[in-house]
Amino acid sequence: MDKDELIAKLEELKPEIGQMMLEAGADEPDWGPLEKVLPMKWCDGFMYMGCCDGVHEYKHGLTRRTLALDSECRAYLFFGGSDQRTEVPVEVAVDRVFEHIEEMGYTRETALTEEIMEERRQRIADAGWTTITMTPGGKK
What we know:
- By secondary structure, the protein is of the alpha+beta class.
- It contains 5 helices and 5 strands, in the order H-H-H-E-E-E-E-E-H-H.
- The chain has a 5-stranded antiparallel sheet with strand order 1-2-3-4-5, covered by helices on one side.
């Protein structure tokens, strides 16, 4: 099976994979902590990744960095590829998530519209990478 056939097969399986994610306990999004620490116009760039041990993870769709917040809006960073996290000031965590976004040609206010995501996918493809998008329910 070549690369294009594999991608087509994964696209075809999205609904089944999404259903399996839900059955396995994929978390329903909780946007509360993110909306408390960021201006609303910045929140449109994030995807909810889940919750582990009371810490919600929000991944920025353009910088690909994660903002980890607990229900009390304390921020955490994970170091060295481990599960160990360290509490940091919210401002430090937010600045890290948005690091280099201007160099990418975007701002903190850039929303993840379909147009922006397609532009991002094209930039990745131009660099020789392949992307696959998966969400519960198999929807993009």
